[in-house]
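Working notes for the structural subgroup meeting. M.R. asked for a predicted model of this chain before we commit to crystallization trials. I am recording the input and output together here so anyone reviewing the notebook later can reproduce the run.

Input as submitted:
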Amino acid sequence: MINRFRCAKIFARCSGLRIRTWTVAAIVVAAVAFAGYQFFRMSRPLPEDAGPAAPELAPMDVAESFRRVDGVFERNQTISQVLSDHGLGGDLVQQIISCAQPVYNLAMVRAGYPFRLRFDSTEQFYDFEYPIDSDRYLLVCRDDAGSLLSEIRDFPFEIRVEEVSAAINSSLFLAIGEIGEKDQLAWHLEDIFSSDIDFFIDLRKGDVFKAIVEKKYLDGEFSGYGAVLAASLFYPLIRLVL
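Returned structure, recorded in C-alpha cell form:
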C-alpha cells in the first residue's frame, strides 16, 4: 500500500494538477478505513525467545524451617559439581540425576541459567528447581514418603492484555525502547509486518505503531511477551495527500 500511495503522489506532482477538496477527503476516508482494518489484523503467537537471556525462577515463600540456596550455573559447570558443592553425597547426586532423566536430561544444563536448592530443618535435601525455558521449569523433590520424584511445571504467570503504541522517529527498535518495552517485541512486530513493509525503506518519521499484546508477569514482575493479538502501522495523512 505504501508504494501505491507514493505512485499517487508522484503522478500528482508530474501532472501539475492540484488535488481538489473532495479528492483529499476521499483519500483521507480511504486511509482511515485502511488503518482500521490493519489494526484488527490478527497475528500468530510469539515464538519462544531465542536470545541468550536466561529465564528466571519464580520467587517463592520459604518456611523458616527450610534453607534455600539460589545460584547460577557457571561456564562448564555440571549438575554433579553444583550438587556436590552444596553438600550432597555422590549417591544422592546420582539419584537426583536419574530421577530427572525421564523428563529432562540434567547433562543439558546451561551456563548462566539459575538453579534453586532447598534443605529441610535437618539439612536434608528437599527439592531442586531449574528453568528449562521461559515458560517451564524442572522440579525434583521428595514426596511424603521421602522418595524422589520429578516433573516439569509451568511457571504460574499472570497474563495481562495491554495496548502498546508509539511514534517512530528513527527506527522501530528505538521507538520500542523509548516507551520502556523490550527488543523482543520489536523483533516480533517486524516479523508480523515483514511481508508488507520494508522497515529500512518504508518507515518515515512520525509513523505510529499500535499493538495489543499479552504480557507475562511472575510475582508482579514483567517476565516476557505472550501473543500479539492485533497490530497496526499508521501513516500520517500528510504522506497520503501531499
